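Re: that chain you flagged

S.,

Sorry for the slow reply, it's been a week of failed gels. I finally had a moment to sit down with the sequence you sent. For the record, here it is as I used it:
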Amino acid sequence: MKRSFALLLALGLGATAARAAGSAVSVSGAWSRPASDTAVVYATLHNSGSTPDRLIGASSSVATHVGLHQSYEMKMNGGSMSGMAMSGPMVGMKSVASIPVPAGGMTTLKPGGYHLMVDLKHAVKAGDTIPLRLHFANAGWIDTTVPVKPIQ
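Prediction finished late last night. Pasting the structure tokens below so you have them in one place:
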């Protein structure tokens, strides 16, 4: 009852929340920006259980592919590339096989960190939604809906 009330409260406040039946893993606060080719999805992955889990894949009916990625920062100590000085912090992105969700904790997919890259079949604009299926190693599949928010 308490779990159902929390879910209804979150939905009533405009947040997206999803949980597989009987699962300790849930997803909340999913969002994306308008995109023509590739959308980036952010969300918070919660694990109320005593066993760690991992996000190991994702799919969407509006995508040809959904990839798990992580942004990272690296320090450049000089040099140049095509005549441009290369010093200071630079941001990169890499594909990852999984995204950890600690037992009794959460992992936030956010700009500059973990995120999902969604190769779209068609453009999405503010007000649209992206249906998303997340595959966890232990919790299995969780379906959620990702609202596309305007660029601010």
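What I noticed first: The two ends are 37 Å apart (CA to CA).

Talk soon,
D.
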